[in-house]
Amino acid sequence: MNPPSTPDRKPALKLRTAVLSSLVALALAAPATASAASLSVSKTCYGPGEKIAFSGSGFTPNGEVALSVSGRQLGLTTANGVGEITASTGAPVIKGKRRVDFYTAVDQADLSLTASAPVHVTSLAVKVTPKNGNPAKAKRVVARGFTTGKVLWAHVRRGEAKRNVKIGKLKGACKTLSVKRQLFPDNAKDGLYSVSFDTKRTYSAKKRPQVSFLVTVFHTFKPSSASSAAQSWIQID
Predict the structure, then answer these.
(1) Angle at the Cα of 94 from the Cα atoms of 234 and 68, rounded to 5 degrees
(2) In order of start, what are the domains of the chain with their CATH numbers?
(3) Alpha-carbon distance 170 to 175, whole Å?
(4) End-to-end CA gap in the chain
(5) How far is it, in rounded angstroms, from Cα 114 to Cα 105?
(6) What residues form DSSP beta bridges with 118?
(7) What pLDDT is stored for residue 34 in this prediction?
(8) Which residue positions in the chain have pLDDT lower than 50?
(9) CA-CA distances (angstroms) from residue 4 to 1, 7, 9?
(10) Which of 152, 167, 231, 139 is nearest to 193 (CA)?
């Protein structure tokens, strides 16, 4: 009498392998856990002192949210009833032309609700060349950081004499410009002038951002009795 045959277990092994493979595939297909919070800013580039406005969502309703930059906490804000936040801070004064800072918002009730936003910041500067020579001739004006306007103007003042010069259209996110313009009238007289650059058609001392210079115009005399005009520039803010 033949002994009872041993059941073939290979199909069961294949079944377990198939089930395991399906579970691995499902695990790999599942999305990674990510924060539901988001943070954004209203502009692509900010000048020094300009208000950076933040908006966010996906935080704990009515909960506190901490805002920080590069690990330095700036303060707390409170989300509304649907988890949305608004916050603002001033753009920093930086060295160099431009940089990117990363601002982060962290939910204080649920630390997994975290969101970050890159913020481009620029310095404010105007360079006029040449600074010496005939004031009535065109000068190269290079500017950046006038992020609250579209057109750069120069305002030349000396006593009652007033001259507003359209320099040109500002370009790019951080509002840069490089053009040649005649800033002084052809008959510029000796004396102290104020030259201010901003984005307003007419002059106002309260306009910001603004870069101002004191310019001394004078004539030099050569032994041949011929004379030539010159100038000396000093930035005052």
Answers:
(1) 150
(2) 38-122 (2.60.40.1930), 125-235 (2.60.40)
(3) 5
(4) 111
(5) 6
(6) 102
(7) 57
(8) 1-33
(9) 9, 9, 15
(10) 231
Give the phi and the psi of residue 15 in degrees, each rounded to 5.
-65, -45
3 state DSSP class of 215: strand
- Given this model, what pLDDT does residue 71 score? 86
106-162 pLDDT, tens digit each: 999 999 999 999 999 999 999 999 988 888 899 999 999 999 999 999 999 999 889
149 Cβ contact list (under 8 Å, min separation 6): 170, 175, 198, 199, 200
User: Which residue has tokens 């910041």?
Assistant: 121
Q: Looking at residue 15, what is its pLDDT?
A: 28
Lookup: tokens for 179 = 């053009």
> What are the DSSP E strand ranges found in the chain?
38-41, 51-57, 64-69, 72-78, 85-90, 98-107, 114-122, 125-129, 139-144, 151-158, 161-169, 177-181, 191-198, 211-221, 227-235
Q: Three-class SS of residue 24?
A: helix
Amino acid identity, residue 106? V
* pLDDT for res 182: 96
Question: Distance between CA atoms of 180 and 130, rounded to whole angstroms?
Answer: 11
User: Taking a C-beta distance cutoff of 8 angstroms, is the pair 85, 59 a contact?
Assistant: yes
Rounded to two decimals, the pTM is 0.77
Answer yes or no: are the C-beta atoms of 56 and 77 closer than 8 Å. Answer: no
